[in-house]
Amino acid sequence: MHIWTKIPPKPIKISFLLFDQFSNHCLANCLEPLRACSSFANQTVFEWQFLTLSGDPVQSSSGLPILPDGALSQMGRCDYLFVNASYDYVQHDTPKARIGLQKASKLADILVGLDTGAWLMAAAGLLDEKTATVHWDTFDSFAEEFPRVDAQRQRLTQDGNRYTCAGVMSAFDLALLLITKHLGQSSKVDIESFFLLKDAPLTAHLPKQNARNPLLNKALSVMHDTIENPLSRHALAKHLSCQAKTLDRRAIAEFGATISQIYRHIRLSAVQQMVLSTPMNISEISLRGGFQDTSAMTRAYKERFGMSPSQCRKQLAK
Fold first, then answer.
1. Where are the beta strands (DSSP E) in the chain?
2. Distances, alpha carbon 268 to alpha carbons 32, 56, 182, 272, 287, in Å
3. Per the CB 3.0–4.6 Å rule, which of 67, 117, 196, 313 could disulfide with 113?
4. Where are the beta strands (DSSP E) in 189-259?
5. What's the domain count of the chain?
């Protein structure tokens, strides 16, 4: 059953292990959606640290230097360990790397291989008897090198507490997966809207059984287009040439929430971004969020974010 909103009891801890010549694009596609969640939730949801094998600085494949927080051997317990490698993965496969990954795997609840990070995980024996993928340029040699791994040419795999993704765009898929897992469908809707074109086929790349209902994609697009002048439930259904009951039934099946709940969430998310990133007064923000009554908006905002818009701004200014 899909859950609309969840609140993790404490921040999700992530360690990113970076190897020299790692893909910065791949890292950003994971990291930025997770960062944005804290803005929408008005609290720290994910927190992370950057590690390297030795603790020395590394460079991305584009030449971006990274000064890490420490060495892999200094890693404490965490919820996720992301292994991020791209080029030169064969040179990175050393006895020190294998031993380091084996030890670190005992401190992380879930291991994630980004790009060719899966190669290093497999070399350390951490993907034996597991389904996994890797960057498709290296897939054939990966499947041949590691016969104990069930190699699949997929964008993203999940097998128990082992996740792997094939590259840059699938890293965003992975971020959405984690966001939905820990925060529910509501945060996924926020992040999709924030990072993707509103008319993009958000689930076009997914297997057919996992793809979102086209009617709901249209509904989400209309709701984002009409934030300032929201439609009634029946008017929205009429615009989409369907019955209001049909729209609700499909929304509950897909998101675990009614269309009215989703619409209200989208409007409050828009209000939150205006509160945080514009100098507009609260009354104007209320109107732009589709609320004719500022008091009603403030009550709804406080119910969701735990404080009023004015209190949120004061907290941000500290």
1. 12-18, 46-52, 58-59, 65-66, 70-71, 78-85, 108-115, 131-132, 150-151, 156-159, 162-165
2. 21, 43, 20, 6, 12
3. 117
4. none
5. 2
Res. 214: pLDDT tops 70: yes
Full-model pTM: 0.85
Rounded average pLDDT over 82-97: 96
In a domain, 192, yes or no: no
Phi, psi of 236 (to 5 degrees): -65, -45
Q: Which long-range contacts (CB under 8 A, 24 or more apart) does 270-279 make?
A: 270/227, 271/297, 271/301, 271/309, 272/39, 272/40, 272/42, 272/301, 272/305, 272/312, 273/39, 275/301, 275/309, 275/312, 275/313, 276/39, 276/312, 276/313, 276/316
Radius of gyration of the chain (CA): 22
From the list 106, 114, 108, the residue with the least C-alpha distance to 13 is 108
Domain boundary (118, 146, 181) is at: 181
Residue of 100, 144, 91 lying closest to 121 (CA atoms): 100
What's at 47, amino acid-wise?
E
Query: What is the longest distance spanned by two Cα atoms in the chain?
Result: 65
Residues 177 and 212 in one domain: no
